[in-house]
Inverse folding.
């Protein structure tokens, strides 16, 4: 029974302790690192699933470390939002770790693979800690662990571009941590508490007495979390980091790491400062401006990228804008749409990065103008890219259509129908840089490039000619399963997303009441 009571804490310890045993495994038997990591991921997913179901049936599950209740002790809570996030994080990590078992053999030095999994599991554990903690001090601790392990995931490839991208990421992440430290410090000055709930109670009483200090704290949080989550124009680290990292690292960074920072910002804004104060503050308009710039700017930058993973990275910048738009609008329906898009985008971008890695694994191709004829050579990967790309654009029966449609309704509910125009324009821009990729894959026959520049490019990258006729993807089964699973998940959210829709309303009621 004692262990049962500590199950929310075990969610973190069950990843933290094995992460520090992985170097021994990597040193003793390097080939065991990947299966060991997969086993850890599955175990954490099992614990997360049980916690999610228990909280769904019995309400939020609060755990107080050492038996010390707030405001003195450290609180861990499995409530609607954290329950959703731990399922999303652990579920996708299982798929990505399974994918990495085959993909890393071609993408990085085998001698470095053991340390990759150390960073991988440590990043997973820190993300789980960040979404379940209920105090500002541990929020900051987990932010730092996520940031350091994410930088390590970028540089794990060992190439010069990866090291440069990792250094840029580290510098900007450190700068962001400074802003967050100031925001936490100002919040503590106003409230005298680090626990989110207790700080929120005192903030409601003292906010009117310290308006400039409150505004400064919220501003620091927006800038700090904006850098961490790659909110335009604070996204400068993201394109290099995502395009230079190994494919599993890119998938984790784009689908999960930037999302947990958004969740942390949301919790601080709505639990500490309160929904009413947030609705009346000018910070909300700053979030809307930055979100609008991200939706358009990220898409424009993505359009001109020839490197496939770099195009996907800039697409993440645009999609982060959708999530911030829903939070900026601040109405119940808009916030439901924001979190629905968060979940859908996690699946979409995982699927797209895994597809990009599969293409590189089989063909060695990295650029968007080198994909002619892959629809018949890699039908599974190509079909998954169609599903994920359609969802990115917002085509019906995909999850992306549902989240964008709800975001449009949320714009009307908030009294800003002009944002519907912005959503449509951004969707058209998405089509402009995703549909040419699909056109090449299915409607351009394989063969020589159409101009001298592409001919030289193909010669320099040593791409091998494919045999004529339709073939099955020549990639390991461990890579096929995650690609297919994420593509099916995107369709499932577009067709049967009623349960998630209703569950997200519980999140809204939990934080906005």
């Amino acid at each position: 029974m004692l262990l049962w009571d500590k199950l929310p804490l075990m969610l973190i310890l069950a990843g933290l302790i094995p992460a520090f045993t992985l170097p021994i495994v990597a040193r003793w038997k390097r080939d065991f690192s990947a299966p060991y990591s997969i086993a850890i991921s599955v175990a954490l997913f099992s614990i997360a699933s049980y916690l999610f179901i228990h909280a769904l049936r019995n309400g939020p599950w609060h755990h107080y470390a050492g038996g010390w209740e707030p405001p003195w002790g450290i609180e861990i809570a499995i409530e609607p939002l954290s329950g959703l996030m731990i399922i999303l994080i652990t579920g996708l990590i299982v798929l990505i770790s399974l994918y990495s078992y085959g993909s890393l053999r071609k993408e990085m030095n085998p001698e470095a693979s053991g340390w990759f999994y150390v960073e991988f599991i440590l990043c997973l554990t820190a993300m789980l800690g960040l979404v379940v903690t209920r105090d500002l001090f541990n929020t900051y601790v987990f932010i730092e662990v996520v940031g350091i392990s994410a930088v390590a995931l970028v540089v794990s490839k060992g190439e010069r571009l990866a090291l440069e991208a990792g250094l840029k990421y580290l510098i900007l992440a450190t700068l962001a941590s400074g802003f967050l430290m100031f925001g936490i410090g100002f919040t503590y000055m106003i409230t005298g508490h680090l626990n989110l709930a207790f700080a929120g109670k005192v903030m409601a009483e003292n906010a009117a007495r310290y308006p400039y200090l409150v505004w400064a704290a919220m501003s620091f949080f927006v800038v700090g979390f904006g850098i961490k989550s790659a909110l335009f124009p604070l996204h400068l680290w993201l394109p290099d980091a995502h395009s230079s990292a190994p494919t599993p690292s890119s998938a984790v960074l784009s689908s999960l790491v930037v999302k947990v920072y958004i969740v942390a910002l949301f919790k601080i804004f709505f639990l500490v400062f309160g929904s009413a104060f947030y609705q009346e503050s000018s910070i909300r308009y700053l979030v809307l401006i930055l979100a609008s710039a991200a939706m358009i700017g990220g898409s424009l930058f993505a359009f001109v990228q020839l490197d496939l993973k770099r195009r996907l990275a800039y697409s993440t910048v645009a999609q982060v804008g959708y999530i911030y738009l829903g939070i900026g609008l601040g109405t119940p329906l808009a916030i439901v749409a924001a979190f629905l898009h968060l979940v859908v985008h996690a699946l979409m971008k995982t699927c797209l990065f895994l597809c990009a890695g599969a293409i590189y694994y089989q063909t060695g191709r990295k650029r968007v103008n080198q994909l002619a004829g892959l629809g018949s050579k890699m039908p599974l990967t190509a079909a998954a890219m169609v599903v994920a790309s359609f969802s990115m654009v917002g085509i019906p029966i995909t999850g992306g259509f549902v989240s964008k449609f709800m975001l449009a309704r949320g714009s009307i509910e908030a009294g800003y129908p002009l944002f519907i125009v912005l959503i449509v324009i951004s969707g058209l821009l998405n089509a402009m840089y995703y549909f040419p990729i699909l056109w090449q894959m299915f409607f351009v026959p394989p063969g020589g490039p159409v101009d001298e520049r592409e001919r030289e490019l193909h010669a320099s990258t040593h791409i091998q000619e494919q045999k004529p006729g339709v073939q099955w993807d020549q990639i390991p089964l461990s890579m096929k399963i995650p690609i297919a699973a994420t593509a099916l998940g995107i369709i499932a959210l577009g067709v049967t997303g009623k349960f998630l829709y209703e569950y997200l309303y519980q999140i809204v009621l939990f934080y906005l009441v």
